[in-house]
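I'd like us to work through together how a protein chain folds, taking it slowly. To get us started, please write out a protein record for me. Label the sequence line and the structure token line clearly, so we can match residues to local backbone shapes. Once you have written the record down, we can walk along the chain together.
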Amino acid sequence: MMQISNDPASNKHSLLNVMHRFIAAANNMDETIMVPSLLRDVPLEEQANNNNNDDEEEAQVASNKQRDMYEHYLLLKSIKNDMEWGLLKREMSSGASFLEIAVKQEEQQQPPVKGELPVEDNADLEHQFHYHLRGLFGVLSKLTLQADHLTNRYKREIGGGNFMR
């Protein structure tokens, strides 16, 4: 007889598990990369070459946003910090993260809430939740792979001395 665990974190398909995997990968990346400045001016081209041809356009857009491995490293660290500390810490330090900007944009697009939502809006909440949950799973899985890739490439490059100029 198969037992089902009541602990959501032990379920490999739970959101908590996906979040923990990303945070663990980002922590490993942070512990491994002792000198992040060595990542400056090192292109992300190797990662773009590893993607499928179907994802070529998506990889090109991503590589335009993070021009080198150092910027990519900072992005992954920033996302991890936002996940661990939330948006309040950013507001207190007067820095705006991409998550904070997205939340503010979403709030501006939404009409002010007055009382109950109409019935059709309540019915759509489940659809919206599942849509965003799938997106969150996909994004966190990709970010985990990117953090692992960055860590492995740093180890390989430092081991070979290719970063030294």
